[in-house]
Design a protein that fits this description.
elongated, 189 residues, mainly alpha, membrane, transmembrane helix, transmembrane
Length: 189
């Protein structure tokens, strides 16, 4: 039985490393669909947790390695996965700006302007904060994070397209980070 535990742990590390590699490749090649491979280790971990399967061998270091891997997945894979969800939700209705935001038309003037710039960087920081706060047992930090993010973007949310994209992107990013953070907390005990 001990050998099975080590094999499952090694398979988990391999799957997590593959998910991280897929996330990096998806980001670099701007092919967010590749990041769907990162869902495999997270989905497997969530299923194992749901069925209360004890898969980690002793010592605690094995759990720490998996926890670090899930944390990395939570932060890195969140970007291409969020882009993928946003692309599915807003097919061909949103044009991207030169600085990573979206282009919207002002009512009345018809003038285009770019809003929601910096979303990629904000997303990485947001996911790192979520994973970290849940890993150390302080999920209340997420409420402050949501408040700061909403207040910071409030002036850019005048158009329905910007509001829709903001809400979908935030929910996809935070949902992914939360799932990975749960796995971090479970593997660290």
């Amino acid at each position: 039985m001990i050998v099975v535990g080590y094999l499952l742990w090694a398979l988990s590390v391999f799957a997590i490393a593959g998910g991280i590699a897929a996330a990096v490749i998806a980001t670099r090649l701007r092919r967010p669909v590749v990041a769907l491979l990162a869902v495999v280790p997270v989905g497997g971990g969530l299923l194992a947790a749901a069925f209360r399967l004890e898969l980690l061998p002793e010592p605690h270091a094995f759990g720490v390695v998996l926890g670090i891997g899930f944390a990395a997945l939570g932060v890195l894979a969140g970007n291409p996965l969020t882009v993928y969800v946003l692309d599915l939700a807003t097919r061909d209705t949103i044009r991207r700006g030169a600085h990573g935001g979206i282009l919207i038309r002002r009512e009345g003037t018809g003038e285009e302007r770019e809003v929601l710039r910096g979303g990629t960087t904000i997303g990485y920081l947001e996911r790192a904060a979520i994973v970290g706060s849940i890993a150390v047992g302080h999920p209340e930090v997420i409420a402050a994070l949501i408040a700061v993010k909403g207040l910071g973007r409030f002036s850019e949310l005048e158009s329905s397209a910007a509001r829709e994209r903001f809400i979908i992107g935030t929910l996809a990013s935070m949902g992914w980070a939360g799932a990975c953070a749960l796995l971090v907390a479970l593997t660290l005990g």
